[in-house]
Amino acid sequence: MILKQNDASDSGAGKALLAPPAPLQDSWGRVHRSLRISVTDVCNIRCQYCMPETGVQFTAPDRLLSYDQIVRFVEVAAAAGIQKVRITGGEPLTRPGLEQLIARLAEIEGIQDIAMTTNGMLLPKQLPALVAAGLQRLNISLDTLSAETFKLISRRDGLQQVLEGIDAACQVPSLGLKINSLVLRDLNLQDVLELVRFARERSIVIRFIEFMPLDGGRTWSDARMVSGAELRELISTHVGALRPVGPRDLTQPAQEFEFENGPGRVGFIDSVSAPFCSGCDRLRLTAEGKLRNCLFGKEEWDVAPWLSTETFDAQQIRKLMQDCVRAKYQAHGIGTPGFTPPERAMYQIGG
Predict the structure, then answer these.
(1) Which CATH architecture has domain 34-349?
(2) Is the CB of residue 135 less than 8 Å from the CB of residue 116?
(3) Which residues are annotated as part of the binding site for GTP?
Protein backbone atom coordinates (compact mmCIF):
# COMPACT_ATOMS: atom_id res chain seq x y z
CA MET A 1 0.00 0.00 0.00
CA ILE A 2 1.36 3.39 -1.02
CA LEU A 3 0.32 6.42 1.03
CA LYS A 4 0.31 9.43 -1.27
CA GLN A 5 0.42 13.00 -0.08
CA ASN A 6 -3.30 13.60 -0.42
CA ASP A 7 -4.48 10.10 0.42
CA ALA A 8 -5.05 8.72 3.89
CA SER A 9 -5.98 5.46 2.12
CA ASP A 10 -6.84 2.49 4.31
CA SER A 11 -3.55 1.96 6.15
CA GLY A 12 -4.99 3.13 9.44
CA ALA A 13 -3.92 6.69 8.69
CA GLY A 14 -6.24 8.73 10.84
CA LYS A 15 -5.17 11.92 9.11
CA ALA A 16 -4.21 12.34 5.46
CA LEU A 17 -0.94 13.78 4.35
CA LEU A 18 -2.11 17.15 3.12
CA ALA A 19 0.16 19.86 1.72
CA PRO A 20 3.59 18.81 0.49
CA PRO A 21 5.88 18.99 3.52
CA ALA A 22 8.82 21.32 3.82
CA PRO A 23 12.18 19.70 3.10
CA LEU A 24 13.87 17.98 6.02
CA GLN A 25 16.52 20.69 6.23
CA ASP A 26 18.54 21.40 9.35
CA SER A 27 19.95 24.67 10.64
CA TRP A 28 23.16 24.12 8.66
CA GLY A 29 21.45 23.69 5.30
CA ARG A 30 21.71 19.90 5.10
CA VAL A 31 18.69 18.31 3.44
CA HIS A 32 17.99 14.82 4.75
CA ARG A 33 17.22 12.11 2.19
CA SER A 34 18.53 8.95 3.88
CA LEU A 35 16.99 6.85 6.65
CA ARG A 36 18.60 4.01 8.57
CA ILE A 37 16.09 1.67 10.19
CA SER A 38 17.09 -0.75 12.91
CA VAL A 39 14.70 -3.70 12.92
CA THR A 40 16.21 -5.34 16.01
CA ASP A 41 18.99 -4.92 18.55
CA VAL A 42 19.50 -8.69 18.72
CA CYS A 43 22.77 -10.00 17.32
CA ASN A 44 24.32 -13.45 17.06
CA ILE A 45 27.85 -12.20 17.81
CA ARG A 46 29.31 -9.72 20.34
CA CYS A 47 31.80 -7.51 18.52
CA GLN A 48 34.00 -5.47 20.84
CA TYR A 49 33.36 -2.22 18.98
CA CYS A 50 29.58 -2.57 19.15
CA MET A 51 28.37 -4.23 22.34
CA PRO A 52 29.49 -5.62 25.70
CA GLU A 53 30.49 -9.26 26.02
CA THR A 54 27.97 -10.18 28.72
CA GLY A 55 24.90 -8.78 30.42
CA VAL A 56 23.25 -7.69 27.19
CA GLN A 57 19.53 -7.08 27.56
CA PHE A 58 17.76 -6.95 24.24
CA THR A 59 14.50 -5.12 23.60
CA ALA A 60 11.46 -7.31 24.24
CA PRO A 61 9.82 -8.39 20.96
CA ASP A 62 6.54 -6.69 21.85
CA ARG A 63 8.37 -3.35 22.14
CA LEU A 64 9.87 -3.51 18.65
CA LEU A 65 8.14 -1.60 15.90
CA SER A 66 6.04 -3.97 13.83
CA TYR A 67 6.59 -4.13 10.10
CA ASP A 68 3.25 -2.33 9.66
CA GLN A 69 4.51 0.51 11.86
CA ILE A 70 7.81 0.73 10.01
CA VAL A 71 6.00 0.91 6.68
CA ARG A 72 3.73 3.68 7.96
CA PHE A 73 6.74 5.67 9.12
CA VAL A 74 8.58 5.26 5.82
CA GLU A 75 5.48 6.38 3.91
CA VAL A 76 5.50 9.62 5.87
CA ALA A 77 9.27 9.95 5.55
CA ALA A 78 9.18 9.39 1.79
CA ALA A 79 6.53 12.08 1.39
CA ALA A 80 8.89 14.40 3.31
CA GLY A 81 11.79 13.69 0.94
CA ILE A 82 13.47 10.52 2.21
CA GLN A 83 14.71 8.54 -0.81
CA LYS A 84 17.11 5.94 0.58
CA VAL A 85 16.50 3.32 3.25
CA ARG A 86 19.08 1.08 4.90
CA ILE A 87 18.03 -1.81 7.14
CA THR A 88 20.32 -2.33 10.14
CA GLY A 89 20.46 -3.88 13.60
CA GLY A 90 21.75 -5.58 15.76
CA GLU A 91 21.81 -8.25 13.11
CA PRO A 92 18.75 -7.61 10.91
CA LEU A 93 18.63 -11.17 9.58
CA THR A 94 17.79 -12.48 13.06
CA ARG A 95 14.32 -10.95 12.66
CA PRO A 96 11.95 -13.29 10.80
CA GLY A 97 10.22 -12.25 7.60
CA LEU A 98 12.56 -9.43 6.67
CA GLU A 99 11.90 -10.01 2.96
CA GLN A 100 8.26 -9.08 3.59
CA LEU A 101 9.28 -5.70 4.97
CA ILE A 102 11.65 -5.04 2.08
CA ALA A 103 8.96 -5.91 -0.46
CA ARG A 104 6.59 -3.40 1.13
CA LEU A 105 9.24 -0.68 1.35
CA ALA A 106 10.05 -1.18 -2.32
CA GLU A 107 6.45 -0.27 -3.20
CA ILE A 108 6.50 3.09 -1.42
CA GLU A 109 6.45 6.04 -3.77
CA GLY A 110 9.67 8.04 -3.53
CA ILE A 111 11.88 5.29 -2.12
CA GLN A 112 14.62 4.81 -4.70
CA ASP A 113 17.17 2.68 -2.88
CA ILE A 114 16.93 -0.15 -0.33
CA ALA A 115 20.11 -1.44 1.31
CA MET A 116 21.07 -3.55 4.31
CA THR A 117 24.05 -3.96 6.61
CA THR A 118 24.67 -7.47 7.99
CA ASN A 119 27.36 -9.71 9.41
CA GLY A 120 26.40 -12.20 6.68
CA MET A 121 26.22 -15.28 8.89
CA LEU A 122 22.54 -15.96 8.13
CA LEU A 123 22.65 -14.65 4.57
CA PRO A 124 22.91 -17.67 2.22
CA LYS A 125 19.43 -19.06 2.92
CA GLN A 126 17.72 -15.67 3.01
CA LEU A 127 19.46 -13.83 0.17
CA PRO A 128 17.33 -15.05 -2.79
CA ALA A 129 14.11 -13.90 -1.12
CA LEU A 130 15.65 -10.58 -0.08
CA VAL A 131 16.83 -9.81 -3.61
CA ALA A 132 13.49 -10.86 -5.10
CA ALA A 133 11.75 -8.55 -2.63
CA GLY A 134 13.76 -5.53 -3.78
CA LEU A 135 17.05 -5.41 -1.87
CA GLN A 136 19.49 -3.45 -4.04
CA ARG A 137 22.66 -3.00 -2.00
CA LEU A 138 24.37 -4.97 0.74
CA ASN A 139 27.22 -4.27 3.14
CA ILE A 140 28.77 -7.25 4.91
CA SER A 141 31.04 -6.82 7.92
CA LEU A 142 34.36 -8.67 7.77
CA ASP A 143 37.21 -7.60 10.05
CA THR A 144 39.63 -10.49 9.58
CA LEU A 145 40.27 -13.69 7.66
CA SER A 146 41.67 -15.42 10.74
CA ALA A 147 39.24 -17.61 12.68
CA GLU A 148 41.19 -16.93 15.86
CA THR A 149 41.10 -13.16 15.44
CA PHE A 150 37.44 -13.31 14.43
CA LYS A 151 36.65 -14.96 17.74
CA LEU A 152 38.70 -12.39 19.65
CA ILE A 153 36.80 -9.52 18.04
CA SER A 154 33.30 -11.02 17.96
CA ARG A 155 33.60 -13.28 21.04
CA ARG A 156 31.91 -15.98 18.99
CA ASP A 157 32.83 -18.43 16.25
CA GLY A 158 31.44 -17.73 12.80
CA LEU A 159 34.05 -16.66 10.27
CA GLN A 160 33.17 -19.50 7.90
CA GLN A 161 29.50 -18.50 7.90
CA VAL A 162 30.45 -14.90 7.08
CA LEU A 163 32.61 -16.04 4.18
CA GLU A 164 29.77 -18.21 2.90
CA GLY A 165 27.50 -15.17 3.06
CA ILE A 166 29.98 -13.15 1.00
CA ASP A 167 30.26 -15.97 -1.53
CA ALA A 168 26.47 -16.09 -1.83
CA ALA A 169 26.27 -12.34 -2.40
CA CYS A 170 28.98 -12.54 -5.07
CA GLN A 171 26.67 -14.81 -7.06
CA VAL A 172 24.12 -11.98 -7.48
CA PRO A 173 25.60 -9.57 -10.06
CA SER A 174 22.80 -7.04 -9.63
CA LEU A 175 23.52 -6.62 -5.92
CA GLY A 176 25.75 -3.72 -4.95
CA LEU A 177 28.06 -5.52 -2.51
CA LYS A 178 30.63 -3.91 -0.22
CA ILE A 179 32.68 -5.20 2.68
CA ASN A 180 32.95 -3.13 5.86
CA SER A 181 36.02 -3.63 8.06
CA LEU A 182 36.66 -1.95 11.38
CA VAL A 183 40.29 -1.95 12.43
CA LEU A 184 41.44 -2.18 16.04
CA ARG A 185 45.16 -1.56 16.48
CA ASP A 186 45.58 -4.28 19.07
CA LEU A 187 43.55 -6.96 17.27
CA ASN A 188 43.39 -6.86 13.48
CA LEU A 189 45.70 -4.22 12.04
CA GLN A 190 47.88 -7.06 10.78
CA ASP A 191 44.94 -8.38 8.71
CA VAL A 192 44.33 -5.25 6.63
CA LEU A 193 46.49 -6.15 3.64
CA GLU A 194 45.05 -9.66 3.42
CA LEU A 195 41.53 -8.23 3.53
CA VAL A 196 42.35 -5.81 0.71
CA ARG A 197 43.68 -8.63 -1.46
CA PHE A 198 40.67 -10.81 -0.61
CA ALA A 199 38.24 -8.10 -1.71
CA ARG A 200 40.28 -7.15 -4.76
CA GLU A 201 40.36 -10.74 -6.02
CA ARG A 202 36.56 -10.81 -5.85
CA SER A 203 35.99 -7.32 -7.31
CA ILE A 204 34.37 -6.15 -4.08
CA VAL A 205 34.80 -2.64 -2.72
CA ILE A 206 36.17 -2.85 0.82
CA ARG A 207 35.75 0.05 3.23
CA PHE A 208 37.76 0.57 6.39
CA ILE A 209 35.96 2.23 9.29
CA GLU A 210 37.61 4.07 12.15
CA PHE A 211 36.80 2.79 15.65
CA MET A 212 34.20 5.11 17.19
CA PRO A 213 33.20 5.55 20.86
CA LEU A 214 30.02 3.50 20.46
CA ASP A 215 31.11 0.22 22.02
CA GLY A 216 29.00 -1.11 24.84
CA GLY A 217 32.08 -2.02 26.88
CA ARG A 218 33.40 1.57 26.79
CA THR A 219 36.86 0.44 25.64
CA TRP A 220 37.28 3.11 22.96
CA SER A 221 40.51 5.09 23.00
CA ASP A 222 42.69 6.95 20.53
CA ALA A 223 45.33 4.29 21.10
CA ARG A 224 43.08 1.51 19.74
CA MET A 225 41.84 3.53 16.76
CA VAL A 226 43.68 3.33 13.44
CA SER A 227 43.12 6.38 11.26
CA GLY A 228 42.12 6.21 7.64
CA ALA A 229 45.26 8.15 6.72
CA GLU A 230 47.45 5.49 8.32
CA LEU A 231 45.59 2.72 6.50
CA ARG A 232 45.86 4.52 3.15
CA GLU A 233 49.61 4.77 3.62
CA LEU A 234 49.85 1.10 4.60
CA ILE A 235 47.86 -0.10 1.60
CA SER A 236 49.59 2.23 -0.85
CA THR A 237 52.98 0.99 0.30
CA HIS A 238 52.30 -2.74 0.29
CA VAL A 239 49.50 -3.32 -2.26
CA GLY A 240 49.56 -0.42 -4.70
CA ALA A 241 49.32 3.34 -5.01
CA LEU A 242 45.82 4.76 -4.57
CA ARG A 243 44.09 7.67 -6.28
CA PRO A 244 40.69 9.20 -5.41
CA VAL A 245 37.68 8.08 -7.45
CA GLY A 246 36.18 11.27 -8.89
CA PRO A 247 34.86 14.15 -6.79
CA ARG A 248 33.72 13.08 -3.34
CA ASP A 249 29.99 12.80 -2.58
CA LEU A 250 29.82 14.61 0.75
CA THR A 251 26.58 12.86 1.70
CA GLN A 252 28.46 9.55 1.80
CA PRO A 253 30.66 8.58 4.74
CA ALA A 254 33.38 6.93 2.66
CA GLN A 255 35.92 8.43 0.33
CA GLU A 256 36.78 5.80 -2.26
CA PHE A 257 40.11 5.22 -3.97
CA GLU A 258 41.17 3.00 -6.85
CA PHE A 259 44.48 1.28 -7.43
CA GLU A 260 46.80 2.78 -10.02
CA ASN A 261 48.25 -0.65 -10.83
CA GLY A 262 44.99 -2.38 -11.73
CA PRO A 263 41.37 -3.02 -10.74
CA GLY A 264 40.10 -2.66 -7.21
CA ARG A 265 38.62 -0.04 -4.92
CA VAL A 266 39.12 0.77 -1.27
CA GLY A 267 37.02 3.18 0.79
CA PHE A 268 37.84 4.90 4.06
CA ILE A 269 35.25 6.04 6.58
CA ASP A 270 37.24 8.45 8.72
CA SER A 271 34.45 9.01 11.22
CA VAL A 272 36.76 10.30 13.94
CA SER A 273 39.76 11.88 12.23
CA ALA A 274 37.94 13.44 9.23
CA PRO A 275 34.17 13.07 9.69
CA PHE A 276 31.65 13.69 6.91
CA CYS A 277 29.31 15.68 9.19
CA SER A 278 29.19 18.66 6.83
CA GLY A 279 27.29 16.63 4.25
CA CYS A 280 25.43 14.17 6.47
CA ASP A 281 21.86 13.63 5.22
CA ARG A 282 20.86 10.77 7.55
CA LEU A 283 18.19 10.14 10.09
CA ARG A 284 18.00 7.00 12.22
CA LEU A 285 15.02 5.05 13.53
CA THR A 286 15.77 2.69 16.41
CA ALA A 287 14.14 -0.71 16.69
CA GLU A 288 11.64 0.52 19.28
CA GLY A 289 10.71 3.66 17.35
CA LYS A 290 12.99 6.45 18.55
CA LEU A 291 14.16 8.93 15.92
CA ARG A 292 17.77 10.15 16.11
CA ASN A 293 19.64 12.72 14.04
CA CYS A 294 23.16 11.44 14.76
CA LEU A 295 24.90 8.36 16.11
CA PHE A 296 26.33 10.59 18.81
CA GLY A 297 23.21 12.66 19.48
CA LYS A 298 21.88 12.87 23.02
CA GLU A 299 18.22 13.43 22.13
CA GLU A 300 15.60 11.06 20.74
CA TRP A 301 12.12 11.69 19.37
CA ASP A 302 9.60 8.92 20.05
CA VAL A 303 7.40 8.28 17.01
CA ALA A 304 6.10 4.89 18.16
CA PRO A 305 2.95 6.29 19.84
CA TRP A 306 1.78 7.67 16.48
CA LEU A 307 2.34 4.57 14.37
CA SER A 308 -0.34 2.12 15.46
CA THR A 309 -3.50 1.60 13.40
CA GLU A 310 -5.58 3.38 16.03
CA THR A 311 -3.28 6.35 16.66
CA PHE A 312 -1.60 6.94 13.30
CA ASP A 313 -1.02 10.65 12.78
CA ALA A 314 1.09 11.60 9.77
CA GLN A 315 1.21 15.26 10.69
CA GLN A 316 2.49 14.54 14.19
CA ILE A 317 5.15 12.19 12.80
CA ARG A 318 6.18 14.81 10.28
CA LYS A 319 6.45 17.40 13.05
CA LEU A 320 8.67 15.10 15.11
CA MET A 321 10.87 14.53 12.07
CA GLN A 322 11.21 18.26 11.51
CA ASP A 323 11.98 18.81 15.20
CA CYS A 324 14.62 16.10 15.08
CA VAL A 325 16.28 17.53 11.98
CA ARG A 326 16.27 21.11 13.24
CA ALA A 327 17.96 20.04 16.49
CA LYS A 328 20.88 18.41 14.68
CA TYR A 329 24.31 19.71 15.66
CA GLN A 330 26.80 20.90 13.08
CA ALA A 331 29.13 17.99 13.93
CA HIS A 332 29.41 15.06 16.33
CA GLY A 333 32.07 16.74 18.43
CA ILE A 334 34.43 13.82 19.03
CA GLY A 335 37.70 15.22 20.33
CA THR A 336 36.21 18.52 21.46
CA PRO A 337 36.08 19.60 25.12
CA GLY A 338 33.01 18.23 26.85
CA PHE A 339 32.32 15.42 24.38
CA THR A 340 30.75 12.36 25.96
CA PRO A 341 29.70 9.19 24.15
CA PRO A 342 25.97 8.49 23.87
CA GLU A 343 24.41 6.30 26.53
CA ARG A 344 23.39 3.79 23.88
CA ALA A 345 25.88 1.48 22.24
CA MET A 346 25.96 0.93 18.48
CA TYR A 347 23.74 -2.16 18.52
CA GLN A 348 21.03 -0.23 20.40
CA ILE A 349 21.01 2.63 17.91
CA GLY A 350 21.44 0.75 14.66
CA GLY A 351 24.69 0.38 12.75
Answers:
(1) Alpha-Beta Barrel (3.20)
(2) yes
(3) 36, 86, 117, 178, 282-284
